Amino acid sequence: MKCVKDCPSSAIEIATGVIADSCIHCGHCVAICPESTISPDSGEIRALKPLTVEPSDFQNLTAGLRSIRYYLKREVPEEHIQMLIENMRHYSSASNARPLRITVVRTPEKIQLLNDLTADTLLKTLSLVTSPIIRPVLSLVAPSINLAGLTKYKESFIRKRLTNSSMVCHHAPLAMLFHGPVSKFDMSEADAYIWATHTTLLAKTLGLGSCFIGFIVKAMERNKTLKKEMGIPINHKVYAALVLGYPKVNYKSETSRSKPGLDFV
Ligand SMILES: Cc1cc2nc3c(=O)[nH]c(=O)nc-3n(C[C@H](O)[C@H](O)[C@H](O)COP(=O)(O)O)c2cc1C
What we know:
Layout: H1 2-6, E1 12-13, E2 18-19, H2 28-32, H3 55-63, H4 78-86, E3 101-105, H5 108-129, H6 134-141, H7 147-163, E4 174-181, H8 188-205, E5 209-212, H9 214-222, H10 224-229, E6 236-245
Antiparallel strand pairs: 1-2, 3-4, 4-6, 5-6
Helix pairs in contact: 5-7, 5-9
The structure holds flavin mononucleotide (FMN).
């Protein structure tokens, strides 16, 4: 009866052996059964190894996980890319809906295009909202927008565009786009950030550095050509983007990033 008790959608009827349509295919019944009597949707049942990760190991892994903006000119082996994708089977998804598709951008030409189209799109948007005509209107209708901050961003974008041809992708050899169909009540964005975060951790154990790129997410919302060039279906939204590769930099020390505020209720 362990499976019956643990099933989040109360879908198991032991007497008849019927599993109802409300089943969300999370596999808890398969994972919990001491007798392995329930067949998984796919693959074999494999016993979990005892956990050997100490809390201090995890603390050390996360303390050393930094956003990498300098990468070696070295390709990420195919088997490592496959491992990062394969392991996504284990990451949670709201209602186990698993709506995400991953696009791996891995040719230098496509990475450059992703970089350039993202930079152009954001520069256009920043130039528009900080223009002498739009600026006064925006400060009236949306006073919470930090126009001074956006102007600084724009200036830095223009400056970096002159000196650095990879201000978005940081010369990384690989980018991963986490996307899925747009729907009003989905939780795809949360799924995407959970999956991407786990990916940065596994990548780190493979010696790979990574960086979340919010700029790509924002630009994808504004530029259909960019989506098309990256092969993203028209009805999909890019919810998260990562760049990955072997880091050129090495962080030796742990630094104190601030803790969140804390309340007990
Ligand atoms: C959602 C999200 C979006 C981000 N977008 C960018 C980005 O577009 N470009 C970039 O260089 N860094 C980006 N970062 C990295 C942050 O700037 C970085 O996490 C922060 O500076 C702290 O550095 P650390 O990750 O090394 O602790 C992003 C991080 C997150 C979580």
